[in-house]
Amino acid sequence: LATFLIWRDGDDYLLQLPATLADTLRQKLGMYVLRARVKLTDASNDLISLGLSGENAQTMLLEHCPELPQQPLEMVKINDQTGNIIRLNDTRFQLNTTPEHAQTLWRALSGRAKSVGSPCWDWLNVRAGIPFILPQTQEQFVPQMANLDLLGGINFKKGCYPGQEIVARMHYLGKLKRRMYLAHVECDVAPQAGDAVFSADMADQQPAQPGGMIANSAAAPSGGYDVLAVVQISSRETQTLHLKSRQGAILTFASLPYPLP
After folding, report:
1. What is the spatial distance between Cα 76 and Cα 82, in angstroms, rounded to a whole number?
2. Sign of the C-alpha dihedral, residues 170, 176, 178, 182?
3. pLDDT higher than 90, residue 164
4. Which of 247, 245, 246, 211 is nearest to 229 (CA)?
5. What's the pLDDT score for residue 227?
Protein backbone atom coordinates (compact mmCIF):
# COMPACT_ATOMS: atom_id res chain seq x y z
CA LEU A 1 0.00 0.00 0.00
CA ALA A 2 1.23 3.50 -0.83
CA THR A 3 -0.29 6.97 -0.67
CA PHE A 4 0.73 9.97 -2.73
CA LEU A 5 -0.48 13.26 -4.17
CA ILE A 6 -0.43 13.08 -7.98
CA TRP A 7 -0.76 15.81 -10.58
CA ARG A 8 -0.22 16.17 -14.32
CA ASP A 9 2.40 18.46 -15.83
CA GLY A 10 2.18 18.36 -19.62
CA ASP A 11 2.94 14.80 -20.69
CA ASP A 12 4.28 13.91 -17.25
CA TYR A 13 2.69 12.82 -13.99
CA LEU A 14 4.33 13.74 -10.71
CA LEU A 15 3.82 11.74 -7.53
CA GLN A 16 4.57 13.30 -4.15
CA LEU A 17 5.16 10.81 -1.34
CA PRO A 18 7.45 10.27 1.66
CA ALA A 19 11.08 9.98 0.54
CA THR A 20 11.45 6.77 2.52
CA LEU A 21 9.04 5.03 0.13
CA ALA A 22 10.25 6.53 -3.16
CA ASP A 23 12.64 3.73 -4.16
CA THR A 24 10.21 1.00 -3.15
CA LEU A 25 7.36 2.52 -5.14
CA ARG A 26 9.53 3.20 -8.17
CA GLN A 27 10.65 -0.44 -8.23
CA LYS A 28 7.08 -1.65 -7.80
CA LEU A 29 5.68 0.56 -10.56
CA GLY A 30 8.60 -0.40 -12.78
CA MET A 31 7.24 -3.95 -12.87
CA TYR A 32 4.22 -2.68 -14.81
CA VAL A 33 5.97 -0.46 -17.34
CA LEU A 34 5.14 -2.09 -20.68
CA ARG A 35 5.94 0.78 -23.04
CA ALA A 36 9.42 2.03 -23.83
CA ARG A 37 8.24 5.66 -23.75
CA VAL A 38 7.24 5.38 -20.08
CA LYS A 39 10.06 6.26 -17.70
CA LEU A 40 10.12 6.49 -13.91
CA THR A 41 12.60 9.02 -12.55
CA ASP A 42 13.33 10.70 -9.23
CA ALA A 43 12.34 14.36 -9.55
CA SER A 44 13.03 15.29 -5.92
CA ASN A 45 15.62 17.91 -6.85
CA ASP A 46 13.60 19.45 -9.68
CA LEU A 47 10.79 21.01 -7.65
CA ILE A 48 10.25 22.74 -4.33
CA SER A 49 6.85 22.56 -2.63
CA LEU A 50 5.61 25.41 -0.44
CA GLY A 51 2.49 25.16 1.69
CA LEU A 52 0.26 28.08 2.60
CA SER A 53 -2.54 27.65 5.12
CA GLY A 54 -4.92 29.98 6.92
CA GLU A 55 -8.05 32.06 6.51
CA ASN A 56 -6.16 34.66 4.45
CA ALA A 57 -4.24 32.18 2.28
CA GLN A 58 -6.40 32.71 -0.80
CA THR A 59 -6.25 36.50 -0.54
CA MET A 60 -2.47 36.43 -0.23
CA LEU A 61 -2.04 34.15 -3.23
CA LEU A 62 -4.29 36.29 -5.41
CA GLU A 63 -1.81 39.14 -4.99
CA HIS A 64 0.82 37.05 -6.79
CA CYS A 65 -1.25 34.67 -8.93
CA PRO A 66 -4.26 35.96 -10.91
CA GLU A 67 -5.93 32.54 -11.04
CA LEU A 68 -6.42 30.02 -8.25
CA PRO A 69 -7.96 26.54 -8.23
CA GLN A 70 -11.54 26.62 -6.97
CA GLN A 71 -12.15 23.01 -5.93
CA PRO A 72 -10.21 20.68 -3.61
CA LEU A 73 -7.40 18.87 -5.47
CA GLU A 74 -7.84 21.16 -8.48
CA MET A 75 -4.63 22.54 -9.99
CA VAL A 76 -3.76 25.63 -12.04
CA LYS A 77 -0.45 26.72 -13.51
CA ILE A 78 1.38 29.65 -11.96
CA ASN A 79 1.06 32.60 -14.34
CA ASP A 80 4.72 32.52 -15.45
CA GLN A 81 4.51 28.74 -16.06
CA THR A 82 7.25 27.97 -13.53
CA GLY A 83 5.03 25.67 -11.49
CA ASN A 84 1.50 25.11 -10.25
CA ILE A 85 -0.86 25.62 -7.34
CA ILE A 86 -2.99 22.84 -5.87
CA ARG A 87 -5.91 23.63 -3.58
CA LEU A 88 -6.03 21.03 -0.80
CA ASN A 89 -9.10 22.43 0.95
CA ASP A 90 -10.74 25.78 1.65
CA THR A 91 -7.74 27.19 3.52
CA ARG A 92 -4.75 25.14 2.34
CA PHE A 93 -2.74 25.45 -0.85
CA GLN A 94 0.41 23.77 -2.10
CA LEU A 95 2.72 25.54 -4.55
CA ASN A 96 5.11 23.43 -6.64
CA THR A 97 7.80 25.32 -8.50
CA THR A 98 11.47 25.43 -9.45
CA PRO A 99 14.07 25.96 -6.70
CA GLU A 100 14.87 29.39 -8.16
CA HIS A 101 11.27 30.61 -8.25
CA ALA A 102 10.58 29.09 -4.84
CA GLN A 103 12.97 31.62 -3.29
CA THR A 104 11.06 34.49 -4.89
CA LEU A 105 7.71 33.14 -3.70
CA TRP A 106 9.05 32.51 -0.21
CA ARG A 107 10.25 36.10 0.14
CA ALA A 108 6.94 37.44 -1.18
CA LEU A 109 4.75 35.32 1.09
CA SER A 110 6.84 35.25 4.27
CA GLY A 111 6.42 38.99 4.70
CA ARG A 112 2.76 38.44 5.63
CA ALA A 113 2.67 34.80 6.70
CA LYS A 114 4.40 33.11 9.60
CA SER A 115 7.17 30.79 8.47
CA VAL A 116 7.01 27.31 9.99
CA GLY A 117 8.63 24.00 9.15
CA SER A 118 7.30 20.84 7.60
CA PRO A 119 6.26 19.37 11.01
CA CYS A 120 3.45 21.95 11.10
CA TRP A 121 2.30 20.85 7.64
CA ASP A 122 2.39 17.24 8.85
CA TRP A 123 0.16 18.26 11.76
CA LEU A 124 -2.34 19.87 9.39
CA ASN A 125 -2.46 16.62 7.43
CA VAL A 126 -3.12 14.67 10.62
CA ARG A 127 -5.90 17.06 11.64
CA ALA A 128 -7.37 16.75 8.15
CA GLY A 129 -7.45 12.97 8.55
CA ILE A 130 -5.16 12.40 5.57
CA PRO A 131 -2.85 9.42 6.14
CA PHE A 132 0.58 8.98 4.62
CA ILE A 133 1.75 5.39 4.44
CA LEU A 134 5.33 4.88 5.67
CA PRO A 135 7.66 1.85 5.55
CA GLN A 136 6.46 0.77 9.02
CA THR A 137 2.84 0.57 7.83
CA GLN A 138 2.97 -0.23 4.11
CA GLU A 139 2.06 -3.90 4.68
CA GLN A 140 -0.34 -3.35 7.60
CA PHE A 141 -3.57 -1.92 6.18
CA VAL A 142 -6.05 -2.47 3.40
CA PRO A 143 -7.02 0.92 1.90
CA GLN A 144 -10.40 1.11 3.66
CA MET A 145 -8.74 0.78 7.08
CA ALA A 146 -6.89 4.03 6.36
CA ASN A 147 -10.15 5.71 5.22
CA LEU A 148 -8.90 5.98 1.64
CA ASP A 149 -12.38 5.04 0.43
CA LEU A 150 -13.74 8.11 2.23
CA LEU A 151 -11.05 10.41 0.82
CA GLY A 152 -11.53 9.50 -2.84
CA GLY A 153 -8.33 7.45 -2.83
CA ILE A 154 -9.89 4.28 -4.28
CA ASN A 155 -11.52 3.91 -7.69
CA PHE A 156 -13.95 0.99 -7.51
CA LYS A 157 -14.64 1.24 -11.25
CA LYS A 158 -11.02 0.87 -12.33
CA GLY A 159 -9.87 -2.30 -14.10
CA CYS A 160 -7.41 -4.88 -12.83
CA TYR A 161 -4.72 -3.91 -10.32
CA PRO A 162 -2.80 -5.88 -7.67
CA GLY A 163 -4.97 -6.45 -4.61
CA GLN A 164 -8.19 -5.43 -6.37
CA GLU A 165 -9.98 -8.61 -5.31
CA ILE A 166 -9.41 -7.97 -1.61
CA VAL A 167 -10.29 -4.27 -1.87
CA ALA A 168 -13.46 -4.90 -3.90
CA ARG A 169 -14.60 -7.81 -1.73
CA MET A 170 -14.27 -5.66 1.38
CA HIS A 171 -16.25 -2.87 -0.30
CA TYR A 172 -19.10 -4.93 -1.69
CA LEU A 173 -19.33 -7.98 0.57
CA GLY A 174 -17.22 -7.58 3.67
CA LYS A 175 -17.63 -5.91 7.02
CA LEU A 176 -14.74 -3.67 7.93
CA LYS A 177 -13.40 -4.31 11.44
CA ARG A 178 -10.90 -1.44 11.63
CA ARG A 179 -11.04 2.24 10.77
CA MET A 180 -8.69 5.19 11.11
CA TYR A 181 -9.49 7.75 13.83
CA LEU A 182 -8.06 11.06 15.00
CA ALA A 183 -6.82 11.16 18.59
CA HIS A 184 -4.63 13.16 20.97
CA VAL A 185 -1.96 11.64 23.21
CA GLU A 186 -0.15 13.31 26.10
CA CYS A 187 3.29 11.72 26.29
CA ASP A 188 6.95 12.73 26.45
CA VAL A 189 8.18 10.74 23.45
CA ALA A 190 6.63 11.21 20.03
CA PRO A 191 4.49 8.27 18.89
CA GLN A 192 5.86 6.59 15.80
CA ALA A 193 4.16 5.05 12.79
CA GLY A 194 3.72 1.37 13.56
CA ASP A 195 3.42 1.82 17.34
CA ALA A 196 0.84 -0.58 18.76
CA VAL A 197 -2.39 0.54 20.42
CA PHE A 198 -3.89 -1.60 23.19
CA SER A 199 -7.35 -1.85 24.70
CA ALA A 200 -8.52 -3.90 27.67
CA ASP A 201 -10.58 -6.32 25.58
CA MET A 202 -7.64 -7.12 23.28
CA ALA A 203 -4.93 -7.02 25.94
CA ASP A 204 -6.72 -9.68 28.01
CA GLN A 205 -6.04 -12.21 25.27
CA GLN A 206 -3.07 -14.50 25.71
CA PRO A 207 -0.70 -13.56 24.27
CA ALA A 208 -1.84 -9.93 24.42
CA GLN A 209 -2.95 -8.64 21.03
CA PRO A 210 -2.83 -4.96 20.04
CA GLY A 211 -6.13 -3.43 19.05
CA GLY A 212 -4.64 -1.06 16.53
CA MET A 213 -1.64 0.83 15.22
CA ILE A 214 -0.45 4.41 14.82
CA ALA A 215 -0.47 5.49 11.17
CA ASN A 216 0.85 9.05 11.56
CA SER A 217 1.79 11.39 14.39
CA ALA A 218 2.56 15.10 14.70
CA ALA A 219 3.32 17.43 17.59
CA ALA A 220 0.27 19.51 18.55
CA PRO A 221 0.76 23.28 19.03
CA SER A 222 -0.80 23.12 22.50
CA GLY A 223 1.39 20.20 23.61
CA GLY A 224 1.27 16.46 23.27
CA TYR A 225 0.71 14.75 19.95
CA ASP A 226 -2.16 14.35 17.53
CA VAL A 227 -2.25 10.96 15.85
CA LEU A 228 -4.09 9.03 13.20
CA ALA A 229 -4.67 5.55 14.60
CA VAL A 230 -6.13 2.53 12.82
CA VAL A 231 -8.00 0.60 15.52
CA GLN A 232 -10.69 -2.00 16.00
CA ILE A 233 -14.07 -0.32 15.54
CA SER A 234 -15.54 -2.32 18.42
CA SER A 235 -12.71 -1.27 20.74
CA ARG A 236 -13.01 2.38 19.74
CA GLU A 237 -16.72 2.30 20.63
CA THR A 238 -16.47 0.52 23.98
CA GLN A 239 -12.91 0.64 25.33
CA THR A 240 -10.23 3.04 26.50
CA LEU A 241 -7.22 2.74 24.21
CA HIS A 242 -3.59 3.11 25.25
CA LEU A 243 -0.35 3.72 23.38
CA LYS A 244 2.24 0.89 23.27
CA SER A 245 0.89 -1.00 26.30
CA ARG A 246 -2.19 -1.42 28.43
CA GLN A 247 -0.61 1.03 30.90
CA GLY A 248 0.47 3.49 28.22
CA ALA A 249 -0.77 7.00 27.50
CA ILE A 250 -4.51 7.22 26.79
CA LEU A 251 -5.75 8.12 23.32
CA THR A 252 -8.37 10.88 23.53
CA PHE A 253 -10.41 10.75 20.36
CA ALA A 254 -11.62 13.74 18.36
CA SER A 255 -13.88 14.11 15.34
CA LEU A 256 -12.44 13.82 11.86
CA PRO A 257 -13.38 16.57 9.37
CA TYR A 258 -15.31 14.01 7.30
CA PRO A 259 -18.03 11.56 8.38
CA LEU A 260 -17.37 7.91 9.10
CA PRO A 261 -19.94 5.35 7.95
Report:
1. 11
2. positive
3. no
4. 211
5. 99
Sign of dihedral through CA atoms 153, 145, 134, 192? positive
pLDDT class of 206 with cuts at 50, 70, 90: low
Distances, alpha carbon 206 to alpha carbons 201, 202, 209, 210, 250, in Å: 11, 9, 8, 11, 22
Q: Is the pLDDT of residue 214 over 90?
A: yes
| Each residue's pLDDT tens digit, 126-148 | 999 999 999 999 999 999 999 99
Q: What is the mean pLDDT of residues 174-185?
A: 94
Backbone angles phi and psi of 202, in degrees to 5? -85, -35
User: 13: which residues sit within 8 A by CB, 6+ positions away?
Assistant: 6, 7
Going from the N-terminus, what domains does the chain have, and what CATH number goes with each?
A: 5-127 (3.30.1360.120), 143-254 (2.40.30.160)
Q: What is the DSSP string of the chain?
A: ----EEEEETTEEEEE--HHHHHHHHHHHHTT--STT------TTT-EEEEEESTTHHHHHHTT-S----STT-EEE-TTSSEEEEE-SSSEEEEEE-HHHHHHHHHHHHTTS----HHHHHHHHHHTT-----TTTTTT--GGGGTTTTTT---TT----TTHHHHHHHHHT----EEEEEEEE--SS---TT-EEEEHHHHTSSS---SEEEEEEEE-TTSSEEEEEEEEHHHHHHS-EEESSTTSPBEEEE--SS---
